[in-house]
Design brief:
single chain, 117 residues, alpha+beta, Rossmann fold, 6-stranded mixed beta sheet
């Protein structure tokens, strides 16, 4: 089977993540990977979570994290990236679909190897 990359682009909050989640639930293909979610408190975004397809969760970045790696006002959580996100991108078998919901600045840094502990 030829491997293909499918990328969905669009402005924030247009439904890209929702579309990907619906596709993953409908297809009959084993999948691994993760989604990211913004977490708001009192209406303000304060952190981003990592949510894997096998139901593990962690913190991708948070305003209160003191890290040498920062994206804007958010400190990047290397521990959860290494513990949760990276393993979620490693398929158990060759026919698995790999889902990476967000390829923003934080995710691009660890996908390119810039975020290593």
């Amino acid at each position: 089977m030829d491997k293909k990359n499918i990328l969905f682009t669009g402005p924030p909050r247009c439904g890209k993540s929702t579309l990907i989640e619906k596709i993953v639930k409908k297809i009959n293909t084993p999948a691994t990977g993760f989604f990211t979610r913004e977490i708001r408190e009192s209406g303000k975004r304060v952190r981003f979570s990592i949510n894997t397809l096998d139901h593990r969760t962690g913190v991708l970045a948070h305003q209160g994290i003191h890290s040498r790696l920062r994206v804007g006002r958010y400190g990047v959580n290397l521990e959860d990236i290494d513990r949760i996100a990276v393993p979620a991108m490693m398929p158990d078998r060759p026919d698995m679909l790999i889902v990476i919901d967000e390829i923003g600045k934080m995710e691009s840094m660890f996908l390119s190897g810039q975020l290593t502990s």
